[in-house]
Amino acid sequence: MSGEQVLLSGTGGQGLILAAIMLAEAAVLAGHNVVQSQSYGPEARGGASKAEVIISDEKIYYPKVQTPGLVLAMSQEAYRKYGLNLDEAAILVVDSTYVLEVKPRQKNFYALPITRLTRSELGGEQSANVMALGVVAALGNLLTREQVTQAVLNRAPKGTAKRNLKALEIGWQLGREAELPAGNRNAG
Amino acid sequence: MSGEQVLLSGTGGQGLILAAIMLAEAAVLAGHNVVQSQSYGPEARGGASKAEVIISDEKIYYPKVQTPGLVLAMSQEAYRKYGLNLDEAAILVVDSTYVLEVKPRQKNFYALPITRLTRSELGGEQSANVMALGVVAALGNLLTREQVTQAVLNRAPKGTAKRNLKALEIGWQLGREAELPAGNRNAG
């Protein structure tokens, strides 16, 4: 892997900075170089917030995402800002709980009810960020499940490890199944 | 204020990323543009870890710290890596609990027992990061106490708000007192 630029976007309270920090930590555990960042400017005050992770085996000269290889959008506004005009090869994941209007996209597009599943499986929206991390990590094919699990354990706030590991597990499976051709789902 | 580059350094478990995120959030509340980042590379694996915050009223073109205006070092190794070769005008804060050997520095140098005080005042080392944030914010003269308090409340993990606000208060006072000429200490 020569490089991957990941953009996690949504609204302020969704915990995407923490998800990005966990993703960065997993990539460090996998031996890569990583820069993780968030920018706040006039545009950030508009509502959409984003956290970036750049993963590379080379030295990272410019530490901001320029050509995302994977975008997660957890709100309609974030989708509008970051989910359009992507390279065809880029992977786009939207949380279909919140992103209801999407432009058709042939390939590498995954609309998954991440927050809704977090509510139904874990009794509340907390840990939707970690479920999203599981989806992204599984679809990105960058990291092993063990590396991501370790990163979540290292970074989960006190008392939330069990819940977050459950969220990660569900998200990982969701990502893995989404990758399969439609005919093979629930078979693998 | 045209710009300020802040570097919070120490070891992995000290919570400096969270302190940097809180500092960034306070600067956003104050209406500034902010980029907050952490880099992990071969050098980061050496032991010293750092989190960066760039605060500006202009657009931030290069999002990494190049000429720090304020450095916090919470370990001897971090001091060695980031606390030497600073501009004379840069503010250097070291946690004297861990940074025992220092090169003399005439101006803008503050050796404060941050972790030791956290232990004695709060019964453990947790929240030393927030006490350090209080010191840095008070010495940096960038932000009001209210802005930093709000940022800590927004970002403190569940159940830790009270402890972290106490840590912030002690850190803020420590920073304010350290700034006074020696003769005036404990008088203001």
TrEMBL record, chains A, B:
Residues 12-171 form the Pyruvate/ketoisovalerate oxidoreductase catalytic domain. InterPro entries: 2-oxoglutarate_synth_KorC, Pyrv/ketoisovalerate_OxRed_cat, Pyrv_flavodox_OxRed_cen. Signal peptide: none annotated. It holds the Pfam family POR. Gene3D superfamilies: Pyruvate-ferredoxin oxidoreductase, PFOR, domain III (3.40.920.10). It comes from the Bacteria. The keyword Oxidoreductase applies. Its EC number is 1.-.-.-, 1.2.-.-. One of its GO terms (molecular function) is oxidoreductase activity, acting on the aldehyde or oxo group of donors. Keywords: Oxidoreductase, Pyruvate. This is 2-oxoacid:ferredoxin oxidoreductase, gamma subunit. The lineage of its organism: Bacteria, Bacillati, Bacillota, Clostridia, Eubacteriales.
